[in-house]
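[STRUCTURE TOKENS]
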Amino acid sequence: MNYIRLLQSNPDFTKLWAAQVVSLLGDWFNTIVISALIVVYTEGTNYQGIAISGYLITRLIPPLLMRPYAGVLADRFDRKRLLIISDTLRALAVLGLLFTTQGREYLPLIYVFTTLQFLLSSIFEPARNALMPSVLYRDQLVIGNTLSSVTWSAMLAIGAIIGGIVADQFGIQTALIIDAGTFLLSALIVMTLTIPDTPRSEIGQEQRVVIDKAKRTFIDGIRYIRKNPATAAAIFVKAGQSFTSVDTILIIYGTSIFVLGEQGTTSMAILWSAFGIGAIIGPLITNRFSDESVRILRRSIVIGYAMIVIGWVLWGLSPSLELLALAVVIRAMGSSINWTYSSIIIQKIVPDEYLGRMFSLDFAGFEMVMAVSVMVTGILIDTIKIDNIQTIVFGFAIVAIIPLIIWAVVVQQLEKHETTFSKRG
């Protein structure tokens, strides 16, 4: 397979990928066990929906506030060093979560340590994405990003299952210690990376003037977006698909509707695994029909948005955990197609010295919209009540049509503009 050949032929990408594998494995240990812990601590209260949403928001708002600085850091400083520092400090933040397992009164500390962890993640992700074109040749960008996306999805599926089993058999504290260990292992792997002075994806491309690092400011990045509507469009994609929040709804279904295992850890593991499986197969299928051009990648994102709508409709109609898992797979296929292809488009059309800031803004848009969506979802759940959650799901299906229409129009306008520009050239 092309993916195996890539790992065999490009050792630096393989190391970056391996670091991602172990880091993500720990992340999903964390998500499953902390979500279950919050449900236990808020059982019988009238603020369970808000408590769960609050946990998800602490994973979104702090990174969102950090993004303007994180992008500049990724474009000004050594990206490899940023990854190592971020991983090491995240391990310490996760160890801090051990204090929260002692009782309900420690619930506020969950939000404190989660905030610290994801503040550091906001530096890690733009730097890692910006490094991809440095270690990948141009003809490897689609395969490399697909493998990265599939890895995220696979570790979601595997990590969710293992996290549920470990938490159930050995306890939450063991799961958190394993999580901290994965960050440290990731840092050790990144230390062995060799980053070339010239990004490999730019080899054979037209020479251009590189902006001095001291001038790589956040405002300069905003100016770049204003001058490049194709980049602005690509940055919209992740935000657009976040109009509707999967996380809160999935946690409620796993812990309150179709419950398996202690505190629903087994049913949550099944649903997160279904999401992971869908996210794996989504881009793998569409890659078979893609010529890797930006034009086709944009059109594939239309399909991704349509699958999100279909997934929500089937979700609302699901009478059992098995059929719900199928709906989650379809919903995740659409999300993964959009996430993967929007990242590839950015890497293909944006110069290396802007990549950190563009990915930082890309994630910022996603986190801002997701934070609003998660909070609204929590309020809706506490207002409408869990017994009527199906109404919320069908409402999400309607809302998800909006970004589908917006993106379809944007693609049409971009293609028209590029055709006109090509004819003039």
Q: What stands out?
A: The chain has 17 helices and no strands. The mean pLDDT is 82. Residues 37 and 101 are 8 Å apart (CA to CA).
